[in-house]
């Protein structure tokens, strides 16, 4: 291989980073992420819906019957969002009765205050804010 082939393209700017999650019930997952989490829809491909979490960070929700993978009961993936006020987010998600919601806790070693919850099919979401 040539050196040019092994080098990242000069214009190799990444435009979007998308994490795809696979669902049995795509509509239910979409309602959660769009209505409860408030993530705006960026791309609707019907069986795959991509929502913006933050600038250039996206979550893709995929109907397992059409995607490259299938939904699985074990979810070794976590979506983590950093917010300015973790306690306000906790109150908000608590009012929406989001599943598996833990109490916010400080981690001095990580320099964060955080809690976790689950989306409708069990993917874990961590919400955190910086302590410093």
From TrEMBL:
| Entries under SUPFAM superfamilies matching the protein | Glyoxalase/Bleomycin resistance protein/Dihydroxybiphenyl dioxygenase
Gene3D superfamilies given in the database record: 2,3-Dihydroxybiphenyl 1,2-Dioxygenase, domain 1
Name the UniProt key words of this record, in alphabetical order.
Answer: Plasmid
Where's the VOC domain?
A: 14-130
Q: In the UniProt record, does the keyword Ribosomal protein occur?
A: no
> Domain of life, per the record?
Bacteria
Task: Respond yes or no to whether keyword Repressor is given for this record.
Answer: no
**Name of this protein:** Glyoxalase
Q: Which organism is it from?
A: Microvirga ossetica
